[in-house]
Design goal:
By secondary structure, this protein is mainly alpha-helical. It is 65% helix and 4% strand. The strands form 2 sheets. It has a 5-stranded parallel β-sheet with strand order 2-3-4-1-5, with helices on both faces. Strands 6-7 form a two-stranded antiparallel ribbon.
């Protein structure tokens, strides 16, 4: 049931009456701007649905994971709970606050799984991004819009008759024409006209709806005692009117009793369904109050927002605290809040909220504060928006910083910047190592996520610079420290350790590191792309070595991650080289050629690539040899397959039922075509060309 209409049309009243009638149990979710994050929304949806549906308790644990598995596990569990429930009603009011496609996708999934007899009611000022036409045609949507909510003559007469003596038909018709049946306009007219003759009421109503509301609501406000006016004005800055918050803003100990009285008197104060002692002013009345407050006492507005920010921050609602801090005009304090709290929200998977926080600032405001610029660099470089990732990575890596402490918990702004530069390594792997070492010296205290992050970056930089043995210790440290303080860094380090072990031919060790990484990934639900990629590459190498057909799926996923993530030059080059090596080992030189071409292009843009340059060149040479060599005959292939064994020429001849001289002829052809002088060289080059599988 879609109730889509302008403010003051009676959407909430209709939904409240509808959901409370009949035998079906109902649940109500009042939405606001802070819910426009899929993890936040799903958390509240789970609690709301638990009142009417059998929600699996494990779902709450999944929602608390650092990056919750929304698509893979959470939505299926919620859909199952909904489909297994008896008929119920779920109301989502003020749904226009949701803009995220992922939020609406979650709602669409739940709607698709409604059992017979269950309904979802959406109250909104704008149509949601659902397939409304298809739903309407299929009979699964009932719409209520502004004209449906407009009062007709009999309804208007009943309402106005409560406030006017002997309302005449012509005046009722005039009020209906002026308000177009708008419920709030009629009600406001009745309140403002209480001390005037009924015939004068139509003259109070003129202009558009906002003008009507502002004028008539101000009439209502002016009829109140001074202390009530002050209470209404000072608390109008709140989205939800909680008595405790009102006490903090006004100092009135009787805030709750006063709100109850105002609600009983219908003074545009409504108790929120399902929210205990929370209230809400009618949106247009609240808008009028805020305008009136700014006109009467502009200096008080910032003070009230600061008090509200302190109150919300004390109770752990950083999102609301930030909104009020910005409303107070305290950009510096707001920037500090974002820089302080973003890692905690990031670990909870609330990436959409963190991004929305940053979007609350203009570019110049972010650039005015180095710590906020660094926050933007860390956040946007880890998300999937290449334009913003490149933009803010550049700005964050070039902003001037000093050794003052970083609000996000890093030892200093300088170490945070050095660590970001090492993570991105845009200037080459030698600079990457210098930045990583600087960060590691500063982040030298175990027991923090930044320490684990610095150890991961140091290990990666050493490996890329050719010091694989020196890379193992910091990576292992990142694993042990990350397990408690930075699980994404633990995941990335395990992936790199698996790659290093594979390079050394220690396949059992490589497989064990990869297995541990996959366990950590299951615990994280899903890591950011740059954390998962090393594991995918390691697993592709292991599967290719074992001739496992699943390697194609892992390769495809690694390729998808590479295309989706904000470019990190060294990770892009690493991916193209390893996937090329894997395809060559699988005996698919055409696919390997495509990766090799991408690697060569990347090298031209990224000349200081450390060991990756040698690997890319080696891949290119092997492919050139494969293109230029004569093809092996079927007989030569059969002999080649026996070369890695310990069989003598005589034993090979017996195995293949040919003479020893025939074996010698085939061997001469093999050595010539593979440009090898010995049996071991022939085996090595055949493996490099994908003609033989590694043992």
């Amino acid at each position: 049931m879609l109730v889509s209409a302008s403010a003051g049309s009676g959407k909430t009243t209709l939904l409240s009456q509808w959901s409370s009638t009949g035998p079906r149990p109902s649940s109500w979710l009042q939405l606001d701007a802070g819910d426009d994050d899929p993890v936040v929304l799903l958390t509240y949806l789970a609690f709301a649905l638990s009142r009417v549906a059998p929600v699996d308790p494990s779902l709450y644990d999944l929602l608390r994971l650092p990056i919750p598995p929304v698509e893979d596990r959470i939505l299926p569990l919620l859909a199952l709970a909904v489909s297994d429930a008896p008929p119920f009603v779920l109301v989502l009011d003020d749904a226009h606050h949701l803009a995220s496609e992922r939020c609406w996708h979650a709602i669409a999934v739940l709607i698709d799984h409604l059992p017979a007899g269950a309904q979802v009611g959406l109250g909104t000022r704008v149509d949601p991004p659902l397939h409304l036409a298809k739903m309407l045609a299929g009979g699964s949507l009932f719409e209520v819009r502004t004209p449906d909510l407009a009062f007709d003559r009999d309804e208007a007469a009943e309402l106005l008759g409560r406030y006017a003596h002997d309302p005449d038909d012509s005046t009722i018709e005039a009020l209906l024409a002026a308000t177009e049946g708008w419920a709030t306009g009629l009600y406001l007219a009745s309140l403002a006209g209480r001390h005037r003759p009924f015939a004068d009421w139509p003259g109070l109503v003129g202009g558009d709806r906002h003008e009507i509301a502002a004028f008539l609501a101000s009439e209502v406000l002016n009829d109140q005692p001074a202390e009530i006016q002050e209470f209404l004005l000072h608390t109008s800055i709140l989205d939800w009117i909680e008595p405790a918050a009102c006490r903090a803003l006004t100092g009135r100990a009787d805030a709750h009793d006063l709100l109850l009285r105002l609600a009983r008197e219908n003074l545009f104060v409504t108790a929120l369904a399902g929210h205990g002692h929370s209230f809400r002013y009618h949106p247009l009345f609240a808008e009028m109050l805020r305008v009136e407050l700014a006109e009467r006492d502009a200096g008080t507005v910032a003070t009230l927002h600061r008090r509200a920010s302190e109150w919300f921050l004390a109770r752990g609602d950083v999102d609301a605290a930030l909104r009020h801090t910005l409303a107070a005009g305290d950009v510096a304090e707001a920037g500090t809040l974002v820089s302080t709290w973003w890692p905690a929200l990031w670990e909870q998977g609330l990436t959409a909220t963190v991004r929305r926080w940053l979007e609350s600032f203009g570019d110049e405001q972010i650039l005015s504060y180095p710590h906020l610029t660094l926050t933007a660099g860390w956040v946007y470089s880890a998300l999937g928006d290449a334009r913003l990732g490149e933009l803010w990575a550049t700005r964050a890596c070039s902003v001037r910083v000093d050794d003052s402490p970083s609000p996000d918990g890093a030892a200093s702004l300088r170490s945070s910047q050095a660590l970001l530069k090492a993570t991105l390594a845009r200037e080459g792997v030698a600079a990457m190592r210098r930045d990583a070492e600087l960060a590691a010296r500063a982040e030298a205290r175990p027991g923090s996520g930044w320490y684990a992050e610095a150890q991961w970056a140091l290990g990666a930089a050493r490996w890329l610079c050719g010091a694989a043995r020196q890379a193992v210790h910091p990576l292992q440290t990142a694993v042990s420290e990350g397990r408690a303080f930075n699980r994404p860094a633990e995941l990335a380090s395990l992936g790199l350790l698996s790659l290093i072990a594979a390079d050394e031919g220690a396949w059992d060790e490589a497989d064990e590191y990869a297995r541990l990484a996959e366990e950590r990934l299951a615990g994280l639900a899903f890591g950011s792309d740059r954390r998962v990629l090393p594991l995918l590459l390691a697993r592709a190498r292991i599967l290719a070595h074992g001739e496992d057909r699943q390697v194609r799926l892992v390769q495809a996923r690694a390729g998808e991650v590479l295309e989706r993530m904000v470019p990190h030059p060294w990770m892009s080059l690493l991916t193209t080289v390893i996937l090329g090596e894997v395809d060559l080992e699988r005996g698919d030189p055409a696919a390997a050629e495509r990766w090799s071409e991408r690697a060569q292009h990347a090298l031209r843009q990224y000349p200081d690539a450390g060991v990756l340059r040698g690997r890319a060149e080696r891949l290119r040479r092997h492919l050139e040899q494969a293109r230029s060599r004569e093809p092996l005959t079927a007989a030569e292939h059969r002999v080649l397959e026996l070369l890695p064994t310990h069989l003598t020429e005589t034993e090979m001849a017996e195995r293949l039922f040919v003479s020893k001289n025939t074996i010698k002829t085939h061997l001469r052809g093999l050595y010539r075509k593979l440009q090898a002088g010995t049996r071991s060289q022939a085996v090595e080059r055949a493996r490099a060309l994908g003609l033989l599988k590694n043992e």
